[in-house]
What we know:
The chain is mainly alpha-helical. It folds into five domains: 2-60, Phosphorylase Kinase, domain 1 (2-Layer Sandwich), CATH 3.30.200.20; 65-238, Transferase(Phosphotransferase) domain 1 (Transferase(Phosphotransferase), domain 1, Orthogonal Bundle), CATH 1.10.510.10; 261-314, no CATH class; 342-548, no CATH class; 709-784, no CATH class. Helix content is 58%, strand content 6%. The strands form four sheets. Strands 1-2-4-3 form a four-stranded antiparallel beta sheet. A three-stranded antiparallel beta sheet has the order 5-7-8, with helices on one face. β1 (2-6) and β2 form a beta hairpin. It is globular.
Amino acid sequence: MWEADDLLAEVPVAVKLLDAGVEPARARREVAALRLLRLPGVVRILDEGIVGGVPFLVMDRIAGTPFPGGAGTVPWSWSALEGATTLLLRTLGRIHAAGVVHRDLKPENVLVDAEGRPTVLDFGFSFRGALAGELTVEGAILGTPAYLAPEQILGGPVSAATDLYALGAMLYESLSGHCPHEAADFAELLRGRLTRPVTPLHEIAPRVPFAVANLVDRMLARVPEERPSSAEEVLDRLHGRPAPPAGAPVAGARVSEAELRPLFAGPDRLFHLREDAARELWARTQGHPARIAEEVAAWVRSGRARRDGERLAVDRDALDDLEGERAMRPSTALELSARDSAEQRRARHRAAAREKPPGDEGRLFHLIAGQDERHGIGAAQIAAEAVATALPLAHAGRLGPAVAALSEGLLAARRSARRGRAAEGWGEARPLGIWAQIAISDGTPRALDRVLYEVCRAGERTAEIAGLEGLIRAALAVRTAAGDRSLALLDASVAPFADPELDRFRQHVRVLAARRGPAEREEAVLAEVAAWATARGDEDAEASLADWLGRLRYRQGRFAEAAELHACAAEGGRWATARIDARLNGASARMECFSFDAARAEAEAGRALARRSRHAYFEGRAEWILRTIAYRSGLAEAPDHELVELAARVDVSFLEGAVCLTEGAVAWRAGRPGEALDLARRAARILAGKGREAGALLARSLAFACGGAPAEAEALSLAEQAVRCPAPGIGIQALGLVAGVCPAVRPALREAADSLTAAIPRRRWDERMDILSVAEALAAGEPR
């Protein structure tokens, strides 16, 4: 672990270098867990990749000391520990609600700052249902011995109770000065952990409040079921509150879907968690109370639902899995007799599968239920059917259920490989190739992490698998502002794919990477891609080319041309996500043409499609565009802080930064300089870290305008950047904001005004842009 400075964001960071021999899937698991856990109290991942064969992670640099923190003496008093423990339990509750178990909780992985706030680090051993895999070497024990739960020693399943055991060991040690099981060597420690009860804490630390000591003892129970069920339950008991039941009614009249919504935690805006969980539960139970209770219990047992205060938390991935599982089942149940043997049941499923064409409803379910290599139904058929099922779902925008189907195909292929039966051309590569297309179409780092994790677990390292890994790593590099690294990865290590659709996604990532560099490089790459698209000559290639050219025209300030190109792209191609993206790109272009009504219509259409597809990123982008239109039209009266926090949960940093900038402008107009300053600084930090120099410049200029006593040196530096800004509209606004509070910048504004406003029609000078109108910016440069 190295200390470093991020030269783009101008902040200190920590860089973790992993041994080149670290299993790739294990490295992906840490990255995926951190990507998922963008939560208070969890270290934040900023960048990752491989350089010179060495995997690396870039994270926030956390200042603090190992739990319990500070310079206290051992044993600690409970009053000295209570604050940090309470905050740590709240963080653990959020981590577990996201479906992640840390598995290596120890003092060194919980740093406590000077104010007593803990931050959880090092998710290298973390586990998540969607990321679970057979990564543990047989006989190996993962974690730090002093804090290992008995189930980890035995190689059993881990859960939230596993982390609570580790926290119990940390508290026991801090409050008493002794480890729960002290031993002379590793083997003795493990034997004691499995065979000897812990000496009750109150016997060796009598000054600890009895209720606290008793709770710590319960956290150290050898059997997970005897420990508290959740971090929330520990908090409830620490504060003397009875643990509220989280469940569903077990008796009474049938309930409606709407009546089920209060069972679940949200949010519904962008994520639709409560409404979708209620819909899925009702679809499975038809509102029968007893069936609801059984179903909820099954969700909790499988880790798909977790307690969140008085409600149940079900995340988007779990909902997608549940929907995909139900979608794979046939609508008409197969008639099976209770007297049938297991083989007879499998035979009936095989017969049902043979009667259905590929991709037909329920065929994948019947193939899985009837799988038997001896009867010609094995991994090859299941993998092929998974692809046939997933592709129409993916094209329609139902990415989650499509991934659920591919997961089944991949699992069948891996099971077959472990039994020594290759899938004859239908091994892991084909399902993973489709999954890669879905993840790139999704566009979020979380989706890319999930498929890269599966690619890294591939049993056979073929050239095709290596190409997929390079493609996904390049797509991730684009998302972390490393356009040069992404383009180098693609051109050096990813050859054109034989599958034309997969190769289209390779070209898509190349174009995205080129956009992160000089405009000349983007034009050169697009010239190559245009020749490729012409040679290919199908609808998807033509629609993609139109969208890519539209992005270039937008960058060149030719907004009307960009809008028309995006409109063409929105009407073509099979992928719903690509059509949504094109609509939103078109809305942004029309907004820059000051065609607010047309922009609003495009954004609302894109939002409706994104909502139907349950795509939080695209829906969030649509809401941001609509908020920006409202601001430019003078209709946004107060900042939308809820949208800011929801954008942070989407896990696409550009969106969070853009929303912060827009809402900062709203706050500034509303006469709330403190809120505007906080939002502008947040936007500047995010956008600079992602290589969005123009947006970061505008955010820093807004922060400067809100920041009180101006520093002339900073003002002149911002003015110099504004004059050189490749986006003249941004440059004139930045100059106007800085000149409004620093007279020393006004001559530079007057001198640069003509060149920065030349491309903006004079009739539009009174209309707001991102923050200022041209007229407002020019007025800031007038002598006073």
